[in-house]
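To illustrate the input format used throughout this study, we show a single complete record. The first block contains the structure-token representation of the backbone; no residue identities are included at this stage. The design step must infer an amino acid for every position from geometry alone.
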């Protein structure tokens, strides 16, 4: 059975499955903490929400890229991926806190693309910092 888990194809499938499952769970968590419904807004054509959500997807995937490339066991990958996501979530709340002149979620819900773009870049940029830190 040990050789089964050492097979490269099995490792790839396991890492992929874990990353996709975590992506779905983490996006659901982001959905809970934002004031808008991501997929409803995207369906309506809200580009700001699409950019912010795309940044979150890229950020989560990038964190898992680092976790997979630097940790052998699947449990370790999950643990570091979850930790990285928590840091990304904290960054989201810090971003909201550091912009007292307006509410980030309200601006993104109103399709303010400038705010959506900054949100996307923050998620992507910090995912590289988080990823490098968890290696």
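Output of the design step:
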């Amino acid at each position: 059975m040990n050789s089964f888990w050492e097979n490269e194809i099995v490792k790839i499938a396991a890492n992929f499955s874990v990353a996709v499952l975590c992506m779905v769970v983490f996006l659901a968590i982001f959905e809970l903490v934002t004031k808008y419904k991501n997929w409803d807004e995207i369906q309506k054509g809200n580009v700001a929400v699409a950019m912010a959500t795309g940044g979150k997807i890229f950020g989560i995937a990038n964190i898992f890229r680092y976790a997979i490339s630097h940790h052998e066991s699947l449990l370790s990958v999950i643990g570091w991926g979850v930790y990285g996501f928590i840091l990304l979530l904290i960054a989201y709340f810090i971003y909201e806190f550091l912009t007292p002149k307006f509410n980030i979620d309200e601006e993104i819900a109103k399709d303010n693309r400038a705010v959506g773009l900054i949100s996307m870049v923050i998620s992507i940029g910090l995912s590289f910092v988080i990823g490098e830190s968890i290696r």
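Structural context for interpreting the output: The first helix runs from residue 2 to 6. Residues 2-134 form one domain.
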